[in-house]
Amino acid sequence: MPFATMPDGARLFYEVKTLVPPWREETGVILMHHGVGLNGAAWTEWQPALLAANYRVICLDMRGFGRSEQPSEGYTWTLPNFLSDIDAVLAAENVKSFHFVGESIGGMIGLAYAARHPERLLSGAFLSTPFDGGRIQAVDRWRATIDLRGMAGWAEELMPMRFADKDVEPSLYQWVRDLQTSCSPLVVCGQGEFIRAQDLTQELPNIRAPVLILAPDGSPFVDRSIPTDLHALLPSSELQWFPGQRHSLLMSRAEDCAAAYVAFLKRRTASAYR
């Protein structure tokens, strides 16, 4: 199992998949970054479409989630630290330029990477992604909920925010709820407070890569105004709405989102489908 070692010595788990035979050239590399309460397996149903298009796909477990190392108490959640974690995974796989797919906080981190390292990002897809944390008020009650009801109570409260009623299969619903229950309250609260402190508005003009914004119209965290404003701030972007969806669009409409991104790559990037 591959792990990347961070500058502070922490180990970050990631998985790499490809169907490209060694005698052929891959179309490119796609790095996929999940959000709070999930892990890299959340992208599983995207992978058939991406692999069939001859991409190498890297799915990481964000620090503090899945099989990646838990941070110690007092760890500082900062954009430079998040970007450094991405760089360590890319270095472990000898990747210089890449495509990025991220959701929620993972999308926010990807926007920052695209703005601060525009020469490395070939394209981006961002789902349920905030760029100004001051507008994400729903995370403010996380700490109080966890203090009162524990991680099981926090997980239960989030589920109707993630998925519309009976919109996903019961096994997926249970998997996400169990995953959230197992999360560290230290990590969840720290990342919620990190989100609230970020504002990337002034950095967004630095992004040069083509961007696809995949937006649910019913996220309790990222309301309709946020992807609309992000689209307006990124002239190279396209915006696709998914009616009736809540925050976790990456799983509730995984195959549709993957197909939309592959079509976008074919349309907007020179490297696609050599």
List keywords for this structure.
9 helices; 274 residues; alpha/beta; Rossmann fold; 17% strand
What this model shows, in words?
With about 270 residues, this protein is of the alpha/beta class. The protein has a single domain (about 5-270), classed as Alpha/Beta hydrolase fold, catalytic domain (Rossmann fold, 3-Layer(aba) Sandwich). Helices cover about 40% and strands about 15% of the residues. It has 9 helices and 8 strands. It has helices at about 45-50, 80-90, 105-115, 140-160, 170-180, 185-195, 225-235, 250, 255-270; strands spanning about 5, 10-15, 30-35, 55-60, 100-105, 120-125, 210-215, 235-240. An 8-stranded mixed beta sheet has the order 1-2-4-3-5-6-7-8, with helices on both faces. The longest helix has 21 residues, at about 140-160. The protein is globular.
Rg over alpha carbons: 17 Å
Q: In percent, how helical is the residue content?
A: 25-40%
| Strand order, sheet with most strands | 1-2-4-3-5-6-7-8
- The arrangement of helices and strands along the chain is EEEHEHEHEHHHEHEHH
Taking the sheet with the most strands, its summary is: 8 strands, mixed
Overall form: globular
Query: End-to-end distance, in Å?
Result: 31 Å
What name is given to the CATH topology? Rossmann fold
Would you report the number of β strands?
A: 8
CATH superfamily: Alpha/Beta hydrolase fold, catalytic domain
Strand content: 15-25%
Mean pLDDT, all residues: 96
Structural class: alpha/beta
CATH architecture: 3-Layer(aba) Sandwich
- Would you identify the regions where 5 or more consecutive residues have pLDDT less than 50? none
The count of domains is: 1
Total helical elements: 9
